[in-house]
Amino acid sequence: MTEWMGISAMRLSRGGYLIREGFRSIKTHSFMSFASVTIIMACLIIMGSVFLLSMNIDHLIGDMEDQNEVVALVDESYSSEDAQALQLQVQSVPNVSDAQFVDRSVAMDNFMNNFDSDFRDGIDETVFRHRYVIHLDDISLMSQTKSQLESVEGIVKVKAHLEYANAFITVRNIVSVVSLVLTVILVFVSVFIMSNTIKLATFGRREEIGIMKMVGATNSFIRLPFIIEGLVLGVLGGGLAFLAEWGLYSLLASRLMGTLAGSFISIIPFKTVAIPMLIAYLGIGVFVGVFGGVNAIRNYLKV
């Protein structure tokens, strides 16, 4: 029991020494540590901003899917009962979320409500057709859905705003690709900068590392302080980047909502993505820091 307690005490003491060495290196090379944290923050803020933009575009397209209506006109020779009988066929078309039948008399009332009484004279419900007002699950499939609806017997024409849907889908795809490419590039840049920062700190201790290797210190024992250094810098950079992103996003969102455009679009509240973004920021920060620390001293361990 005494022997086991002695071993545990030695391990704790050694662990404390390694942790202190990691923090000491950060303090000793404070300027480079500050530069590392700043670079990590900048990279994460850019990545986060692109991600938030992509999410808001997806949200906007989702709103468009909810509000965008495809109108399927029924053959004018069909009675109201015959037209209503098509509802099951229309709703069974893939990508159709819901289909609401609108009688020609209701269609006329909706149309007439937009005009004064002089314009209404001489117009009756026979001018209008029975129709279905349809919402889609995915507007990117609007063109295919339009063709499938027109193939339903009794449906003679489908009105759909394909140009608007295609424009939003194109923007979403571009933002998604740009977001992915920027994320990959910025992660590599962060790792590169972190590695070089820790390499500079390691260069002044290369003789110390060589002596430790010669007296039998293991690679893990030598490596751990640098891993702790990278870990601390990564967590610090990720945490500060998250707070900065939160402030910037809230400021821009409040200003946008105060403009005319804010009355037409909705912005995703930051609190709905705060926890996943915090986890992602800290995770990327830890990865960049630890990988940078391990990579920085790899050559010095080959003694």
Helix % is 55-70%
Shape: elongated
Q: SSE order in H/E notation?
A: HHEHHEHHEHEHHHH
The secondary-structure class comes to alpha+beta
Query: Which regions are unreliable across 5 or more consecutive residues at pLDDT < 50?
Result: 1-13
Query: How many strands, which pairing sense, and closed or not: the largest β-sheet?
Result: 4 strands, antiparallel
The average pLDDT is 75
Number of strands: 4
Task: Report the β-strand fraction as a percent range.
Answer: 5-15%
Compute the number of helices: 11
Number of domains: 2
First-to-last CA distance: 38 Å
Tell me the Rg in angstroms: 32 Å
Short description:
The chain is an alpha+beta fold and 303 residues long. It contains eleven helices and four strands, in the order H-H-E-H-H-E-H-H-E-H-E-H-H-H-H. Helix content is 69%, strand content 8%.
What does this structure look like?
This protein is of the alpha+beta class. The protein has 2 domains: 16-64 and 166-301, no CATH class; 69-160, Alpha-Beta Plaits (2-Layer Sandwich), CATH 3.30.70.3040. The chain has 11 helices and 4 strands. Strands 2-3-1-4 form a 4-stranded antiparallel beta sheet, with helices on both faces. Helix 1 (2-28) crosses helix 10 (219-257), helix 2 (30-67) crosses helix 10 (219-257) and helix 10 packs antiparallel against helix 11. The chain starts with a helix and ends in a 7-residue tail after the last helix. Residues 1-13 have low confidence and may be disordered.
